[in-house]
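step: validate -> pass
step: tokenize input -> pass
step: predict -> running
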Amino acid sequence: MARALIDARAGKTPLTIYPGAMPQTMAEAYAIQDRAIAFDGRRIGGWKVGRIAPELVDRYGGNRLTGPIFADEIVDGVAHRPEMPVYAAGFAAAEAEVLLCFGDVGTRAYDIDSVRGCIADVRTGIEIASSPFPEINRHGPAVTASDYGNNKGLVLGPPIADWQNADLIRMPVAMSIDGAPVGAATMEAMLDGPFGSALFLIEILRARGIAIPPGTWVSAGAITGIHEIRPGQRAEAIFDGKIRVGCSIKGY
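step: predict -> pass
step: emit ->
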């Protein structure tokens, strides 16, 4: 299954059906993901964190999932507006997210307050979600996690100044596609917020034996929703009414 998933990504070939028995647990999903990462061989520059729907938390044993973001798919969205590729015959979406950059994580134990101490930078950004399997989000979080968590890249936007003292949870965020509003929200509905995503990531990667080198990005979760998008369209997110980050979309 791992080989089929990464071959479809590398060959830009749509998957009309999932390539094998769909994983039923997060352990099965991460086993597929780990094997795919090993086959892939590219350097990981970050991790996306997504939410598991409340009605599925008991079944899957947690409220978040993760997937790798490869370093060659993390792009600068400050100096210019990048063009981000998606699988045109698969699934594609853009998500406004707060991005956290790890400093030295080390081996110490963290909680929701102390985890801030290993964060070196906080930025605005857009996660590009895309998979060759168009039904990836219709079969539960284990299927989503098995194919890199449905990630296809990350746009690094401007930093959030004085983030240590900023009220990130209540910061307004708005998302538009081709200039039309598609969502607006704050992070108040995001479980325990972006730092909770960082804490989750540290714990799950340690359990999987995966190191977190300094400079690793965390795409902390969709704020305004998962907004499906097509090649030729433009996405823009506005944080705190003034910090803008955007990209255009091209198809494979």
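step: describe -> The chain has a mean pLDDT of 97.
step: cleanup -> pass
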